[in-house]
Amino acid sequence: MLQYTLRRLLGMIPLLLLISLVVFFLAKMMPGDAFAGEIDPSNTNPQYIEEMREKLGYNDPIIQQYGRWIVSFVQGDFGKSTVYKKPAAEIIVQRIPNTIFLAFTSLVITYIFAFIMGMYAGRKPYTLGDNLIGTYNYLALAIPSFVAGIVAIYFFSFKLGWFPFNGSVGVGLEPGTLDYFVSKLHHVLLPALILGLMGTASYTQFLRNDIIENSRKDFVRTARAKGTKESKIYNKHILRNSIIPLITFLGFDIATLISGAVITETIFTYPGIGALFLESVGRRDYAVMMSITMLLSLLTLFGNLVADLLYGVVDPRIRLD
Amino acid sequence: MKKSALWSFMLLLVMALFLAACNNDSSSTEKESEKKPSGDTTATTDTAAKGGVVTFGTDTAPEGVYDPAYSGSIVDSYIQGFTMEGIYDVNDDLEYVPNLASWEISEDKLTYTFTFQKGVKWHNGEELTVDDWVFALETLADPDYDGPRYNYAEGIKGAKAKKEGKADKIEGIEVVDPYTVKITFEQVKINNLENLWSNPMPKKHYEGIAVKDLAESKQVRENPVGLGPFKVKKVVDGEYSELERFDDYWKGKPQLDGVIVKVIDPSLAAGAFQNGEIDIMAIKPQSVKELTALDNVRIEETNGVSYSYIGLRFGHRDKATLKNVADVDKFKSKELRQALLYAINRPAMIDAFLEGKAAVANTVIPTTFWTAAPESDLNQYEFNTEKAKELLTSAGYVDKDGDGFVEDPNGQPFKISFGHYAGSAAFEGRSQAIIQSWNDIGVKTEQATGSLIEFNLYNDMKDNDDAALEAFFGAWSTGADPDPSGLWGNDAEWNYGRWVDAKNQELLNKGLSEEAFDKDTRMKTYVEWQKHFNEELPALPLWENMDLYGINNRLQGVHINAVGFQTDVYKWNVQE
User: Fold this and answer.
1) Which chain B residues have a beta carbon less than 8 Å from that of A45?
2) Which residues from A are below 8 Å from B73, CB to CB?
3) Is the model's pTM score more than 0.95?
4) Ramachandran area for residue B165 (φ above 0: left; ψ -120 to 50: alpha; else beta)
5) Nearest to B487 among A41, A83, A94 (CB)
């Protein structure tokens, strides 16, 4: 398995290079650059813009720019944001805690709800309850998060006033205090609920199907024959088996944890990686955009690897070599 | 085997959780240490009789550059509107008036002597002297300076030499005493003052930082020092900036305790106003209806300095010589251009797409400027399709083959490709309305590329004189300097139609010349220029936009003019 892991890790390198090449070229081929559209005739002189373009090398052939970028990237220099005029790495690191907090909360919500719904649906398949759960799940999957976000803000923030609708923390609170933490939690709850409740479909249906499948297996029949209580059969015998394949989802969640939710973060003005990514694309902030892209690609690849490894661990029939 | 596998998995899960928790933890402590220094200023709340905190909403996040010499974003400049102050101010008529300093102009009009106010304090308690301003000018002209504002020092004698590294100091600056300084310019120009950098830099605060490091220094990015009525207390990146009252503000103690600049998604503006979460925000005409329905919010409007127009292509820009070359003949006929403007029902478009919050313009100098020509001097081009058709016929554009559309005077098919950028929902209708108007008078018009063009791509196409943009929608915001040569000069980069005209340049030059120091002469020159523009129509002026602000009724004392909403912010107050 060690050999397999190493092989996979080495295999990531060309893949990452390829991803970076494609994304870099696509980004550069987008019309405009960091200085386009920012023209304010009374304040900016064309010479300055030309000078900066020359200085940042925007006038060189793309392949040359790519070469320059990848060399410094490999050496750990992620470039400087043209918007914030700070190192890209610094800006990203600043945003990561917010994103992880949001993603973590929403994942917990997803897990809890998916678990409850999946258990119920699996235990009583093809009943009204199961159908309702199924309907809800696919509806939630189909509704775009920005619609859900705005509707939720309208009801819960504007009409009922239960939750704040923007930002990640209340104004003027000192970090480290209890108020600060409570405010953070309060701010994260609504976007996390949106993300969490809208994303239960895959988990729920996976769990449901697995429970149904397991409930027809011999060991369940044996247990029933022995006279084991129905609840014990489901909660112990079946669940223990059904939950194992779900573990592999964990790998995929690693990337989600960082990538945040581009749209949801933007609507809630929640300063995380997702909102930053969207902004960097819109404003052609190449350094930030490429750094986030690479970070997410790496995490996705890594997540896939973890998922594959977990499969092997969970199910010995799968051999990794 | 199975059991141990399960255990190892459980261990992994626990570790994953632990790691995640760790991450969370370390990040919050990191944040803590980062914010402490700026956050420990003593709270001054509750001591003032009036007090109160208001929230200003913006739709994009500040970039967090607090020195105007380095910042470029509008949101940063809003924050600077609270925290910074310049040597001159711009009044309601867009005239430049003394603020931190007053000035006298010498006989030869080359030297300006500035006298500074005494007793003006920086936020760190230092007194403002001319050294702070000279320091700013020297920084702008420094070869290592990497901000975008060098052009505001360029006009001073010897600034070029410093920029090129040939001199240590700007020759044209002479400090007389701590409150008096003489600035000598390279050339006599009426707008030397308008093109002179107005914001002093806190010299003591920036001491010891090399110019090339200044832009990224903590002093500029994290704990800025300004002269304005409010100082930066705390910044939470991408979310809000908290400003607090500066008690020693030189015009008097501000009435509010503080201002919060908060980022919100524009789609939520109405709700946030209703809830009282924001007190003031610049709004778009599209939100007017929603906000008028709220009884705790008023809308204030003022004539702004921005206008919309339809550009017509006359040529291209030669990038090697930086000159505009008129080599496209499509719109050479003046009658054709006039007909195109007569064909458009501008009041109807303003009602339909801008909620009536704009005024028809017949020239490209907004009426707020003191140089604006009286409407009686200008042809009004009121919507008149008959007149448009007459003009077309008289210029030789008639329908010869009977397809309902005119041919050009040589009998060749005539077609205009009109471009518009994508953006808000109203743009599609606006673009179609213009195309329809022209088709209605028999000028065949099609949408360039078949749909609205993505904004960045559109700018690229304009920069590169793309052939598809024969006519194109454009808008400018002009700033307070009445000189239009940056946009309409013969060789101006932003003269996107590439209109080259001898009389145009002659008048624009005259407006900046020595004789223009006489205000009447200058005014007359610009009126003449506007009449010329109005007659020739090198671009079709559509309307000038109104600046709109939504303001919560509890916030009083806001003075709005064409430059913005931040005149005398120290007078803002809250009435519950």
Assistant:
1) 148, 150-151
2) 83
3) no
4) left
5) A41
Cα separation of A57 and B238, whole Å?
28
DSSP state of B374: P
How far is the C-alpha of A195 from the C-alpha of A265, rounded, in Å? 10
CB contact under 8 A, A31 and B454: yes
* A232 Cβ neighbours under 8 A, 6+ residues apart: none
- Minimum distance, in Å, between the CA of residue B234 and any CA atom of chain A: 8
HSE-CB for B375 with a 13 A CA cutoff: 9
Residue (of A29, A67, A34) closest to A49 by Cα position:
A34
Contact call for A44 and B148, based on CB within 8 A: yes
| Angle A86-A91-A94 from CA coordinates, rounded to 5° | 140
Closest CB to B456: pick one of A32, A40, A84: A32
List chain B pLDDT tens, one digit each, 576 residues.
Answer: 444 554 554 444 444 444 433 333 333 333 333 333 333 333 333 334 478 899 999 888 888 888 888 887 788 888 999 999 999 998 888 888 999 999 999 988 899 999 999 999 999 999 999 999 999 999 999 998 888 888 888 889 999 999 898 999 999 999 999 999 999 999 888 888 888 999 999 999 998 899 888 888 888 888 899 999 999 988 887 788 899 999 999 999 999 999 999 888 877 888 889 888 899 999 888 888 888 888 899 999 988 888 999 999 999 998 888 889 988 889 999 999 999 999 999 999 999 999 899 999 999 999 989 899 998 999 999 999 999 999 999 999 998 888 889 998 988 899 999 999 988 888 999 999 999 999 999 999 999 988 899 888 888 888 888 889 999 999 888 878 888 888 899 988 888 999 999 999 999 999 988 888 888 999 999 999 999 999 999 999 999 988 999 999 999 999 998 888 988 899 999 987
CATH code of the domain made up of A88-285? 1.10.3720.10
Taking an 8 Å cut-off on Cβ atoms, the answer to whether B264 and A168 are in contact is: no
**Among positive and negative, which fits the CA dihedral B225, B255, B259, B45?**
positive
Rounded to whole angstroms, how far apart are CA atoms B195 and B212? 23
CA distances to B330, B391, B392, B412, B539 from B396, rounded to whole Å, are 13, 9, 6, 11, 21
E strand intervals along B106-179 = 111-116, 173-177
The secondary element (H helix, E strand) that includes residue B574 is strand B573-574
Judged by a CB distance cut-off of 8 A, whether residue A218 touches chain B is no
Do B357 and B548 meet the contact criterion of CB atoms below 8 Å apart? yes
Q: Which residue of A has its CA nearest to B27?
A: A97
Nearest Cα of chain B lies from the Cα of A27 at a distance, in angstroms, of: 13
Establish if A278 touches chain B: CB-CB under 8 angstroms: no
Task: Give the closest residue to B538 by CA, choosing from B331, B362, B283, B354.
Answer: B331
Q: How many CB pairs under 8 A join A and B?
A: 163
Q: What's the ipTM?
A: 0.76
Residues 6+ apart with CB under 8 A from B552: B54, B273, B276, B278, B279, B280, B296, B297
User: Which residues have CB under 8 Å from B89's CB, separation 6+?
Assistant: B96, B97, B98, B99, B567
Question: Do A85 and B20 count as a contact with CB atoms less than 8 A apart?
Answer: no
Distances (CA, A) of A230 to A207, A223, A233, A240, B482: 18, 9, 5, 15, 85
